[in-house]
């Protein structure tokens, strides 16, 4: 299950960027062509986050559909599996435009409260 290794990398990156703050949620984009099963990633996230700044964080996964462009006939089309033939002209001169993404889009972390103003140094009118 490669989802565990991928999810561990996500947790490590998130914790590194959290800079010591607790992580509340992480949003990840997963392309439908990148062979990552979102439900498996959700399961692995809880295990990988245990004992880290991301423990208890919510993982939100946005699935990105596959799409491609045929350079021969200029057709843009949906791509459900990585079969790179144009459905219109059967051409193989096809460029994948989306669906291979695997990226952290955002994360929500706690913020420290502002330090109270020191009474002795606060200017008085």
TrEMBL record:
<protein>
    <recommendedName>
        <fullName>Hydrogenase maturation factor HypA</fullName>
    </recommendedName>
</protein>
<dbReference type="InterPro" id="IPR020538">
    <property type="entry name" value="Hydgase_Ni_incorp_HypA/HybF_CS"/>
</dbReference>
<dbReference type="InterPro" id="IPR000688">
    <property type="entry name" value="HypA/HybF"/>
</dbReference>
<feature type="binding site">
    <location>
        <position position="2"/>
    </location>
    <ligand>
        <name>Ni(2+)</name>
    </ligand>
</feature>
<keyword id="KW-0479">Metal-binding</keyword>
<comment type="function">
    <text>Involved in the maturation of [NiFe] hydrogenases. Required for nickel insertion into the metal center of the hydrogenase.</text>
</comment>
<comment type="similarity">
    <text>Belongs to the HypA/HybF family.</text>
</comment>
<dbReference type="Pfam" id="PF01155">
    <property type="entry name" value="HypA"/>
</dbReference>
<feature type="binding site">
    <location>
        <position position="89"/>
    </location>
    <ligand>
        <name>Zn(2+)</name>
    </ligand>
</feature>
<dbReference type="GO" id="GO:0016151">
    <property type="term" value="F:nickel cation binding"/>
</dbReference>
<feature type="binding site">
    <location>
        <position position="86"/>
    </location>
    <ligand>
        <name>Zn(2+)</name>
    </ligand>
</feature>
<dbReference type="GO" id="GO:0008270">
    <property type="term" value="F:zinc ion binding"/>
</dbReference>
<feature type="binding site">
    <location>
        <position position="70"/>
    </location>
    <ligand>
        <name>Zn(2+)</name>
    </ligand>
</feature>
<keyword id="KW-0862">Zinc</keyword>
<feature type="binding site">
    <location>
        <position position="73"/>
    </location>
    <ligand>
        <name>Zn(2+)</name>
    </ligand>
</feature>
<dbReference type="GO" id="GO:0051604">
    <property type="term" value="P:protein maturation"/>
</dbReference>
<keyword id="KW-0533">Nickel</keyword>
């Amino acid at each position: 299950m490669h989802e565990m290794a991928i999810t561990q990398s996500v947790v490590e990156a998130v914790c590194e960027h959290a800079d010591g703050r607790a992580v509340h949620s992480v949003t990840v984009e997963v392309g439908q062509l990148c062979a990552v099963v979102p439900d498996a990633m959700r399961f692995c996230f809880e295990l990988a986050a245990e004992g880290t700044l991301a423990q208890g964080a919510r993982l939100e996964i946005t699935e990105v559909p596959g799409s491609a462009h045929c350079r021969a006939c200029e057709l843009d089309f949906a791509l459900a599996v990585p079969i790179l033939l144009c459905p219109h002209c059967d051409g193989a001169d096809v460029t994948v435009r989306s669906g291979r993404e695997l990226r952290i889009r955002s994360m929500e972390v706690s913020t420290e409260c502002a330090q109270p103003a020191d009474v002795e140094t606060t200017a008085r009118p």
